[in-house]
């Protein structure tokens, strides 16, 4: 019979001591489990389809040509492994703190601190990418050409911040419709593109077909290295798939709903990313696509149908807003989890009357304002700069998920926690293989000169910031560990506020 050591490891001494498991579960207090199957399915889809496909694919097709489809496929497989690893942890204990909470459980508070703040770095930079994407999409229409890029970035930020502060139901409902628009757009593109390709038609004077690949340099028109270097950018395109783990803490029947949502990611990846890229390069030469414009907009505009390019541009606008919406949602919950464990300032643990962790959301909004400033100072290069920095956060986040899954399996083997039926396929081999892949992505990032090279060079600076931050917060984290009882939500907030004073 399994013996859960966590039930025998009190957080405090004496009669009021509580088990570590109870202490961890107390961090979820204050949230309402209101998200349903319909919303979770679309949140999972929305996490898998973002600006990395709708905007980033244009520049990447230009850089690597048709080989981008292969890169998407490889990265998609590893993102599936990461999601299955996260799925194991969710089945063990659904948590709005997601992998930050699991890092606390299996690796300790110091690891939780690093995991949470690196995830915050990921979404903070991703949000800047998203508001930049909104501004670029708005400039597709000539009527807005004279409006500065930063103005659109600020408007997008204000809209999405309001959505997240109202309540989780509003976030989920908006995300549902955002994701539905994205899926509908991709489906329309696949249907129209397949029909044109199947009928042997032409687009913008180019006969469609596989010959467009061979006639324009083959799969690797610039060689292997550009495709390899792009892996770090494509990894960023899949960032957000882990959002379903964060939503688990506010999901009804999470252990029933999440496995199906996670398992569907692999075919969505194949359909939405790989099939779309293959179709794009069979409908137009890969050189027709360019940075700064969605390849889907390029295609539909080439058809010559009035207004269809503008319609597609509305769709990609919704994709950027969807990603921005998800970023604020996830960082708010992760920062609250950090604060509840003592690894972040007390303000970040605060909840509104609508059960929204508004402290973390407002801090993230403040970072996004920096993105607005960047759009004012360097509008032409802000997208690539922050994308590379965000990739560091993605690699760190996925690495922590895999390590936590491996620690969970080890705890199961020792009989310390109960096993789950929803396991990562091929583990531990696939776990080690995924870690090796993530290390390879980091190395490849260094070859992406100049932005990627400078990003990797900045790692020691990021480490220094984490060391300083932990030195500052470690005392508070230790005090959080000796809380003698599990307080109510209101009392918890009072205690945290007092500790912060």
**What low-confidence regions span 5 or more consecutive residues with pLDDT below 50?**
1-18, 484-501
Strand content: under 5%
Percent of residues in helical segments? over 70%
Reading the helices and strands in chain order gives HHHHHHHHHHEEHHHHHHHHHHHHHH
What characteristic shape results from the CA principal axes? globular
Largest sheet entry: 2 strands, antiparallel
CATH structural class? Mainly Alpha
Radius of gyration from the alpha-carbon trace, in angstroms: 23 Å
| The CATH superfamily title | Amino acid/polyamine transporter I
- The CATH topology assignment is Amino acid/polyamine transporter I
N/C terminus separation? 46 Å
Count of folded domains:
1
Number of strands: 2
Strand order of the largest sheet: 1-2
Number of helices: 24
Query: Which whole number gives the mean pLDDT?
Result: 79
Overall CATH architecture: Up-down Bundle
**Category by helix and strand content:** mainly alpha
